[in-house]
């Protein structure tokens, strides 16, 4: 689970940087990267929930 949380943090940092670029400077390519990162974060968060529930049951 530690690796997963580190990967989520890494992708979140990329998302945050790109979303800021889009919002502040109107960078369309950064917006596309931010949307792609958000999809990755969504998938990883679902995996995190699954693992978290399994570990809570132990």
Structural class: mainly alpha
**What is the helix content?**
over 70%
Mean pLDDT: 96
What general outline do the C-alpha atoms trace?
A: elongated
Unreliable stretches, pLDDT < 50, 5 or more residues? Answer: none
Order of helices and strands: HH
Number of helices: 2
Rg, Å, rounded: 14 Å
- How many DSSP E strands? 0
Topology diagram in text:
Layout: H1 2-25, H2 28-56
Can you walk through the features of this model?
- It is elongated and about 50 Å long.
- By secondary structure, the chain is mainly α.
- It contains two helices and no strands.
- It has helices spanning 2-25, 28-56.
- The longest helix is centred in the last third of the chain and has 29 residues, at 28-56.
- The model has no long low-confidence stretch (mean pLDDT 96).
Keywords:
mainly alpha; 2 helices
In short:
This protein is mainly α and 58 residues long. 91% of the residues lie in helices and 0% in strands.
């Amino acid at each position: 689970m530690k690796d997963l949380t580190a990967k989520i943090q890494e992708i979140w940092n990329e998302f945050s940087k790109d979303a800021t670029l889009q919002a502040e400077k109107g960078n369309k390519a950064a917006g596309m990267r931010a949307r792609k990162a958000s999809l990755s974060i969504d998938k990883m968060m679902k995996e995190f929930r699954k693992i978290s529930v399994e570990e809570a049951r132990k």
